[in-house]
Structure formats: C-alpha cells, structure tokens
Fold this sequence. Notes:
heterodimer, B: mainly beta, 4-stranded antiparallel β-sheet, 0% helix
Amino acid sequence: xxxxxxxxxxxxxxxxxxxxxxxxxxxxxxxxxxxxxxxxxxxxxxxxxxxxxxxxxxxxxxxxxxxxxxxxxxxxxxxxxxxxxxxxxxxxxxxxxxxxxxxxxxxxxxxxxx
Amino acid sequence: xxxxxxxxxxxxxxxxxxxxxxxxxxxxxxxxxxxxxxxxxxxxxxxxxxxxxxxxxxxxxxxxxxxxxxxxxxxxxxxxxxxxxxxxxxxxxxxxxxxxxxxxxxxxxxxxxxxxx
Lengths: 114, 117
C-alpha cells in the first residue's frame, strides 16, 4: 500500500526565514500534487509536478520532484504571515496503471510568526 | 462557473440518524470524487464516480456508506445510522477528465463538516 509521509508535521518559523517541507512516498509514481488548506476551508491547488526533475515556482513557494528518490520538497523563501496554513502533498499511484485517486500525506502545519 | 458546490457546510446528526451530503461538480465535469478528513489527518479517498456509475469505491466503509451520481442532479454521499466516529470533514472534488489525463488535478469543494452527537 502506498504511504505518503510529510515532515515536519508542524513548523513554526519567523517571517523572513527560509525553510523546506519534505514529502516522501513509498512506491513508484511520477505525479505529485501540493495543496494548501486554511483552517475550516477547502484545499487549494498549489503545484502539479508531472515528471522527474520537475520544478515549479509561485511567489515565495517552490516545489520540486525527484521520482528516483521518491521525494518532493516545498521550499519557502522569506516567509510571510500570509503563508500560515496546512500544506499537503498527494501522490497519484498511477504509475503503469489508472487508479484515478490521490493518496495524501498527513500535512504540515506552518505557522509564520512576526 | 461556481466551482464545486457542497451542501450543507455544517451538519449535526444524532447517533443513529442518516446524513446526506450533496455535491454539485464544476459545470461540465463528469468525474466526482469523495474524500474524508478526520481531525488532524490528511484526506482519505472514499469513492470515485462518473455519471450513474461507481468506478472505484475501494475507500468506502463496507457498511452504512453509499454514494451515487445520478444522470440529473448532484452527487450524494449517504451515511446511514451515523456513529461518533463518522464525525469528519467530507470533501467532494471534480475533474473534467480522468485524473491521470489532466495536468491540473481536481477542483475541491469547501466540504461538509459532519458532527455526530
């Protein structure tokens, strides 16, 4: 069974600092998604990574995918308070097949302190 | 385009009652997915439906839970004889094509937060 693990589970950081959230998964996949969730709200799609070596950036967030290491990273540059939220990675275990569902990690709660 | 609409936003049920959760997908989307999020956890896949068909229900509990997506109208997730362990946020998502064939993934609704008292 595919497992998706994120770390850290909780991250408290100061404004202006850089940090990285890691997402490891246990089986072969070449599609990985990052979502943001604010408290009590739905999930907002941030990035879709579709191949080994894919890198995408939006504002202060940058995501990358290494399918050989089964690892994705979400890098935060010069954090601001507005980035406080829970971040989820999700893997499509579709490699070689068609499952049409996502397996989510447990999430990383990011709290950016002034 | 109003996105994925779920209702109600909050639902309180007593143990033993039935809960009906509704999901209207993005206009033109024929693929609907239901996920459950328990407190402090990530989302867990429940079921994938296309119009009038259940394609994958591997994440659905074997008893008390059912889902449908009729030709007309919203998709319905139905939970019979609810228990406290059913308390969770239930999210619906939709996509235009199968997930594997889209570069953008799902569009999620705002969820229904079910509380069983």
